[in-house]
Design goal:
This protein is about 35% helix and about 25% strand.
Length: about 200
Amino acid sequence: MQLTGHITPDSLMSLEAYSKWRKTHKGEVIAHRQLRSVALGEHLNVQFESELTIRYQTQEMLRIEKIFEEEGIQQEIEAYAPLVPDGHNWKATVLIEYTDINERKRELARLIGVEDRLFVEVEGYDRVYAIADEDLDRENEEKTSAVHFVRFEFTPAMRASVRAGAAVKLGCDHTHYPVHQQIRPETLASLAGDLR
């Protein structure tokens, strides 16, 4: 899978080529996703996206849905491409995970607004709060969704500090889910590569 900086129909593999590529490279993509995932407490999983993860997701959807016509391919690109970081931000899929269905229902009601209380704190700078669910609202008066899409926007000085090795915390200051932690060095090294 060749990273080009921009996902277009021409930069995607055919279904046949992707099927062959997938057999030998799926494990690499899974390892990349795991490297870029941060468990925030016991029930929030923040998966930082990259061109590789989104290109893979797009190719997977085309494969699963057997989409090969140009219009369908373009629709999948438009659905996923906004999740690719663009040099001055990090973008992530946030999963709220509870295995017990009754506990999940109760906690999704208690955690309304949790996506807006996620933050990244670069050493020496103020917290940057998530901009959440820009594509559509994922909660109502009764509960939040178990999946959110968020973006963290950084100033040029913050980006330079991260690239220079500053420590970075990921956290949440929602009343019912207060947690924060340092991002592991190996994860931070991968995320720093997203910033220009």
